[in-house]
């Protein structure tokens, strides 16, 4: 029994590291998406969403060919549901990144872990501890503090509405991943995310694509890199959901907008303030608190 408990504890630590790595991947992805949708780059939110799914599907097919048994679908309805909701997330989030600063988009979008926890109460009968609720509250307050800084308004323009709509679909996806991990591996879930999500985003990519001239090769390279970062973030997140409850994952997912906010300062020239940095510290403290005290005592 002690050996089993130790192994479970190690797996939980690995899952938390996977969510931290996922936050870094998604943060960099958002920075590149914001950069690629700036005037003069030639890409739209729809273009990037389609490219993300196509690259993900091709890499998945290559992995399935190299690793026998990696492709093991069981619950097709759940896998397709995750793909459709994920497709809506991608196109809405990229649309938000094209219209508002990356830091603001990330913070608005990342209310999804809290929404996901509420959904999980009904879907999985999860019962977060009081410490976990306090950790989610503290981390969320830190995120709100970052949002409330002077250069970020609280108005609801089309970019803000798109980010919030993406958050609702992302919460649905998070619970679908958690449910699917009982029967599916992370690679299979990601493949269906790409295949089922592609028809959702394709109508938004009908405008002319940037050409492959010498001047645009760098932009295409960044777009492919963005797609690979998204692939890494999705796989790490799906793998972590195989171990952590939705409520505990919600605490760690609060790192995503913080990572994105900090990266946007040097990479996009977005401004950081004292209030924003204080929000960062509160969020990190909330994550640490939830990690140490948020789990239920083992029988």
TrEMBL record:
The keyword Zinc does not apply. SUPFAM superfamilies: Multidrug resistance efflux transporter EmrE. The keyword Transmembrane applies. It is a multi-pass membrane protein. Residues 21-147, 158-288 form the EamA domain. The chain crosses the membrane at residues 49-71, 83-101, 107-124, 131-149, 161-180, 187-206, 218-237, 249-269, 275-294. It is found in: Membrane. Pfam families: EamA (PF00892). Keywords: Membrane, Transmembrane, Transmembrane helix. This is EamA domain-containing protein. It comes from Geothrix edaphica.
């Amino acid at each position: 029994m002690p050996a089993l408990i130790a192994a479970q504890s190690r797996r939980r630590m690995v899952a938390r590291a996977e969510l931290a790595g996922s936050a870094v991947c998604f943060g960099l992805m958002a920075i590149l998406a914001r950069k690629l949708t700036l005037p003069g780059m030639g890409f739209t939110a729809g273009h990037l969403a389609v490219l993300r799914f196509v690259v993900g599907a091709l890499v998945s097919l290559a992995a399935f060919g190299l690793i026998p048994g990696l492709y093991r679908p069981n619950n097709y309805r759940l896998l397709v549901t995750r793909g459709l909701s994920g497709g809506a997330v991608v196109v809405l989030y990229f649309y938000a990144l094209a219209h508002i600063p990356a830091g603001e988009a990330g913070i608005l979008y990342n209310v999804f872990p809290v929404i996901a926890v509420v959904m999980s109460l009904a879907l999985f009968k999860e019962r977060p501890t009081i410490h976990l609720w306090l950790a989610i509250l503290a981390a969320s307050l830190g995120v709100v503090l970052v949002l409330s800084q002077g250069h970020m308004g609280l108005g609801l323009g089309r970019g803000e509405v798109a980010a919030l709509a993406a958050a609702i679909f992302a919460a649905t996806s998070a619970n679908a991943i958690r449910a699917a991990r009982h029967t599916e591996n992370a690679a299979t879930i990601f493949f269906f995310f790409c295949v089922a999500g592609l028809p959702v985003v394709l109508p938004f990519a009908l405008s002319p694509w940037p050409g492959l001239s010498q001047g645009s090769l760098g932009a295409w390279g960044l777009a492919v890199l963005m797609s690979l970062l998204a692939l890494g973030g999705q796989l790490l997140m799906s793998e972590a959901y195989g171990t952590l409850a939705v409520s505990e994952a919600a605490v760690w997912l609060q790192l995503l907008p913080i990572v994105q906010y900090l990266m946007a300062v040097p990479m996009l020239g977005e401004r950081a303030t004292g209030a924003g940095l204080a929000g960062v510290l509160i969020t990190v403290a909330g994550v640490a608190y939830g990690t140490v005290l948020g789990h239920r005592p083992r029988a």
